[in-house]
Amino acid sequence: MPYxxxxxxxxxxxxxxxxxxxxxxxxxxxxxxxxxxxxYQIFFITLIQFSFPxxxxxxxxxxxxxxxxxxxxxxxxxxxxxxxxxxTLPGRLILGNTFLWSDFPxxxxxxxxGWLGMRQLKRSSCG
Length: 127
Fold this sequence. Notes:
With 127 residues, this protein is an all-alpha fold. It is 76% helix and 0% strand.
């Protein structure tokens, strides 16, 4: 299967899986936060690889990790315009609400798994 098609399928699977894990009452808050963050990282790596398939996968994974860390640190800044964005569901999902040091390990794990997964998908795809 072509690489971009496989990436599109991955995106189609990771979005509902990520939302299910993040918002399901079946899981503890800790589990939802950790695995939701991992899915978030994998989603963005996959989205960037889908949009720019010739981009280095390792550079993509590192960039997504740095972006997520930047967003996490941005949560310390409570500027009115950021608070207005965070008051919406999309803003809350993208920017988050609360800075937590414990979010950084799942970002690293998600970026690593995303890098490994995309590398494997690229190797096994036909184009």
